[in-house]
Amino acid sequence: MELHKSLSLLAALFGLIGAVFLSKGVLALTPKAIVYLTSPKYSTLDFASKQNILSLATQKADTLCGIGYVLLAFLIQVISLIFVRNTVFLIKSRWMVFWVAMAIIAILTVVASIVNIRYRDYIALVAGKNEVKDYCTKHIKGVVESAYANGVESGSEELLDLKREDSELQDDFIKRISEYVGYSIPKDTDFSKILSDK
Question: pTM of the prediction?
């Protein structure tokens, strides 16, 4: 392999490893870690802000798309250096190559943007479910206080975009949300206090 190709391959490898080091902190964030990092220390409802969760979920989704682009660039570079001979011409006009490359990048960017938004929303939803589940685990047991029942309502609306129906009783809503987030309400849980408050 010629010296310039060897150096290009080495540069591509350095770029790939650098991108991995830059992104590994954000890529390692799980939905639980996102909730932990965004939870307020002093809050009446103990819920993380949806804006904070979305911010970290966006960073994770953006980083994932960015590393995807870097990996794709690395693969193209390696293929061009190792497997492609100098005499191969796919398109002879340099301007035509430029416009074809721009079209490919534009299509991939649109697809990546859609995937990015979907992935961000998925991470935010999982983080919101974890947050509401943790709240239910702490407060929806034994005799359920009215403040905690209201907390489940406000947290579900804020983090999961789920509201209680007009005809739905508060205890039924809590049971529905608990099932949605994967929390099993203990059998001895008493909702009489919130029912009597009505």
Answer: 0.75
